[in-house]
Amino acid sequence: MSRTTGHEPFLGRDTRVGPLAELGRGTYRVILDAIDNGDWATAVELLPITIQEAEELHDVYGAWPSQIVSWCIDAGADTQEVAAGRQALLDLIADGQTPDWEGAWTKYVQLTSRATELCQAQQPTARAAVLAARDRWMLAHDQAVDHVYGLLDLAVRLHGEECLPTVWNHLMSPWYDEHARRLSRANQPWEESARQLSVAILDGFHGHLAGADRLGDVEVIEEPDRVGFRFAPCGSGGRVMDDATTDGTPRMEPPYRFAVTSKAYDWSFGKAGVCAYCVHCCLLNMTEPTDRLGHPTRVIEPPIWPASREGSTCTWWVYRDVDDVPDEVYHQIGRRRPASTDEEAT
Q1: Structure pTM?
Q2: What distance in Å separates the CA atoms of residue 83 and residue 155, rounded to the nearest whole number?
Q3: Sign (positive/negative) of CA torsion 29, 35, 37, 41?
Q4: What pLDDT, on a 0 to 100 scale, did the predictor assign at position 2?
Q5: Is 231 helix (H, G, I), strand (E, B) or coil?
Q6: CA distance 233 to 274
Q7: How far apart are alpha carbons 245 and 346 in whole angstroms?
Q8: pLDDT tens for residues 95-147?
Q9: Main-chain phi, psi angles of 303, to 5 degrees
Q10: Is 234 in contact with 269 (CB distance < 8 Å)?
Q11: Cα–Cα distance between 151 and 186 in angstroms, integer?
């Protein structure tokens, strides 16, 4: 058996390896197919990878809710009003209780360990055990996204939708700095940056459980000048818009009524109807890199409400040569292409 994983220096850990088209298949899908084909060794090798794909989400979804609440208060909102708004959200998404995020994560890790043991023993119950682990992660993940999105909605209600980039900057500033340092063409060739960006997309959206079946599937689109990664839907912002992945209750509809942009902004891909959660993808991949490096690192075609209610898709493009990013992409986010993208913004 050839190994399906290998060490990725950029991530600092093992991840899946192989052609992009193969890597687009969700890790859970690959595991289930391996079990069905009697390839127990591949299933055993990949089950720990599912935890590693989810680890960054474990970190941020554990930290962001309290950080958003603190930001709202620091920005001048009444403490009691913030507390009441947060409690109303918890009543809506978690039976009034603060979600036990760490407890849910521990249970998910335990279920994954149990599934691994059953695969090692080649037990007929292994497939069901893998799905039980996936289901535990999906339940916790989706509640965490609703929690973050609902708190962003609270910030919008308290401070107006123009606060969204400020809130997200508060949450993501360390990421901006690290991405600008690493992806600068003064520090590494763009070819390597494009590879790393592609690895991160696939690894991350497997963790988000992208795709209608929520197995982590990503469609990979190879074009001469760029590579596309299409989520139908992504497991986070796109999932909240889609009837099929919300049991017919998109989070923009009652009883949630979570915020989408009422008009086009530079930080909302130049579009109205972008959910408050999806805004961070524009900031992280388009506006901030353009301001710091002179170009976007990924070009995103986001899901838009309400058109995405029946089939939410989001496509991320990584250009093989960053100088090929079209002028209209810069205009969309209120920027201009530098005279030479070899001269990065300072």
Answers
A1: 0.96
A2: 12
A3: positive
A4: 57
A5: strand
A6: 14
A7: 42
A8: 999 999 999 999 999 999 999 999 999 999 999 999 999 999 999 999 999 99
A9: -70, 145
A10: no
A11: 38
